[in-house]
Write a structure and sequence with these properties.
This protein is of the alpha/beta class and 247 residues long. It contains ten helices and eight strands. The chain has a single domain, classed as TIM Barrel. It starts with a strand and ends with a helix.
Length: 247
């Protein structure tokens, strides 16, 4: 049985490192459940947060890594740099794809760097609203999986996690349905099998307007093993309710 995982992606929040440490400690103090718990603080807070929760059953993830190991890339962070501070890294989040122009070729290189550095990658895939309306959701995520794993040795994906995040649901308060998420998870695992990956061992998370109210449907959805949570993860009480749903 796949382990369940709930990760809070704090994005560009909270405003200070001190606030990030306080929030991390509050999350670390949440009642434990059978689901593994993780947080992805901003890069500037990674070191302080990692130190604050050291020895606690709380995984720390970076929000992104660069596709090169080192070099003249102002403002960027390599997977090797992250390795001493975090267990894993988010790769291919739709906001990074949008704001930094990351296409699947670049995401594939980032994923390969994360795996090579020994990080646990959370690969994000998902369709736009136009693709959703056109009925192309499953085709899009399958295509992304094939393209994003292209730079890896076939079948060697490390401790891969895939997060299905329909772009049209992120931050809109309009989550997908459990049935839609299940269909996406099936398409993801079919594509993984086509890449010689043990798809049954890869957790698939749902991300997109996850709240304490909406999560119940996804916790019951076949093939969904957890959640990648955005704004709701900044409230320890609501985040705790989301975690408990996956117990």
């Amino acid at each position: 049985m796949r382990a369940r995982l709930v990760v809070g992606n704090w994005k560009m929040n909270p405003p200070t490192i001190e606030d990030a440490v306080e929030l991390a400690r509050a999350v670390a103090a949440l009642p434990r459940s059978s689901a593994k718990l993780g947080i992805a603080p901003p890069a500037v807070a990674l070191a302080a947060v990692a130190d604050a929760v050291r020895g606690r059953d709380l995984a720390v993830f970076a929000q992104d890594v660069h596709w090169e190991e080192k070099g003249a890339f102002t403002g960027q962070i390599s997977a090797t740099m992250v390795r001493g501070l975090a267990e894993g890294a988010i790769v291919g989040h739709s906001e990074v794809r949008r704001d930094q122009g990351d296409d699947d070729a670049r995401v594939a290189r980032k994923l390969a760097r994360a795996v090579a550095a020994g990080l646990r990658p959370i690969l994000c895939v998902g369709e736009s609203e136009a693709e959703f309306v056109a009925g192309e959701s499953t085709n899009v995520v399958a295509r992304q999986i094939s393209a994003d794993l292209a730079a890896l040795v076939r079948g060697s994906v490390g401790r891969l996690v895939v997060a299905y995040e329909p772009i049209w649901a992120i931050g809109t308060g309009r989550p997908a349905t459990g049935a839609h998420a299940t269909a996406a998870a099936r398409a993801i695992r079919t594509a993984l099998r086509g890449m010689d990956v043990d798809a049954d061992a890869v957790p698939v998370l749902y991300g997109g307007s996850v709240s304490a109210k909406s999560v119940v449907e996804f916790a019951r959805a076949d093939g969904i093993d957890g959640a990648l949570v955005g704004g709701a993860s900044l409230d320890p009480d609501e985040f705790g309710a989301i975690v408990r749903a996956f117990t």
